[in-house]
Amino acid sequence: MKIVLDLTKLLEEGKITKEEYDKFSGLAKKETVGILPNILVGFGTILIFCGIASFAKSIEFIFALSVIFIGVGFFIREKLFKDWGILSSIFIILGTISASGAYFELFDFYSDGSELNYKIAIGSVALFIAAMSYFARSALLAGFSALTIGALLGVGTSYYSATYYFFVEQPSLTITVYGALSILTYSLSNIFSSQIERLLLSFSRVSFFLVNMAFWIGSFWGDKEYFISNNLFSIGWLAFLIIMIIFGVVKNKRFTINMSVTFLSIHFYTQFFERFGVDPISFIIAGFFALIIAIALWKYNKKLN
Predict the structure, then answer these.
(1) How many other β-carbons are positioned within 10 Å of the β-carbon of residue 30?
(2) φ/ψ of residue 167, rounded to 5
(3) Which of 74, 160, 226, 270 has the fewest Cβ atoms within 10 angstroms?
(4) CB atoms inside a 10 Å sphere around CB 3
(5) H/E run at residue 158
(6) What is the pLDDT of residues 195-243, one digit of tens each?
(7) Of 37-41, 46-50, 94-98, 286-290, minimum mean pLDDT range
(8) What are the DSSP calls for the chain, one per residue?
């Protein structure tokens, strides 16, 4: 469990003693190099990588370069982590993402392009990213591994003429799979060490987010493959969000509450404007509801703080 405390404020308010202040301050990580040099060197590294990759004549070269970056990242993590921990993470994350893309292109080039081979490639990339998240202890990569699985379920994004798309081809299947993954990883997070717990929670939270996105898409068009109407998705999503809010309150899970309330607001606006259209009165009513939800959420978070 990670808790953020303002030690100076607690000392001024008399809630901790000077000895406790010194003790807790001494437990904090000491970084001799600092964050800014790590970030600057990291951005420079990214630019160099992109520049070299742009001159590459083959995907094989990019894949090899990515593997080298991963190796350098782990070397820095092993030998210089105290001073250059952020830089090591940048190397590993950049190398992992680039290697995943290059591997997928290589797999696509050398395979027959069948749907089965496509799924094998996506699945192996997801496993690779998940493994790298474990070895690098990267919550970001853990979240990426959850996102990658979506490609197996028909979840993705697209871009066309200054317009971005998010699509879910099979809402029911997406909700089922990601719901199960979210529950599984959340349950496992309670039995592992804090470092592994952080990775599992990242995976679980991204899965929870995608469950809600699938519900949202389903509330518009339903799921024709399983003959589920959009109205059924709307009702199911509402019930799901209410259950998750109650769960969050009982278990004191702020993330679950905040995300559930956010999607509850999205759900409300979606159904409200779908039913009543866009006119001045509907805008006023929706605005009042937005203020009520925002104030309630603000008071809840303030109470927890």
Answers:
(1) 7
(2) -130, 150
(3) 160
(4) 4
(5) strand 155-160
(6) 899 999 999 999 999 999 999 999 988 898 888 898 899 999 999 999 9
(7) 286-290
(8) ------HHHHHHTTSS-HHHHHHHHHHS---SS-HHHHHHHHHHHHHHHHHHHHH-S-HHHHHHHHHHHHHHHHHHHHHHHHHHHHHHHHHHHHHHHHHHHHHHHHHHHHS---HHHHHHHHHHHHHHHHHHHHHHT-HHHHHHHHHHHGGGGTEEEEEETTEEEEEES-HHHHHHHHHHHHHHHHHHHTTS-HHHHHHHHHHHHHHHHHHHHHHHHHHHH-BGGGTB-HHHHHHHHHHHHHHHHHHHHHHT-HHHHHHHHHHHHHHHHHHHHHHH-S-HHHHHHHHHHHHHHHHHHHHHHHHH-
d(CA 240, CA 18): 47
The pLDDT tens digits for 26-71 are 766 554 456 777 788 888 888 888 888 888 878 999 999 999 999 9
**Cα→Cα distances 34→30, 37, 222, 257, Å:** 9, 6, 50, 34
The residue extents of the domains of the chain are 1-30, 248-305
Distance of CA 282 to the CA centre of its chain: 33
- Count H helices and E strands in the chain, helices first: 11, 2
Phi, psi of 170 (to 5 degrees): -130, 80
DSSP string spanning 49-77? HHHHHHH-S-HHHHHHHHHHHHHHHHHHH
Structure-token match 């702020």, residue found: 254
Q: Which residues pair with 46 in a beta bridge?
A: none
Placement of tokens 């470092």 in the chain: 195
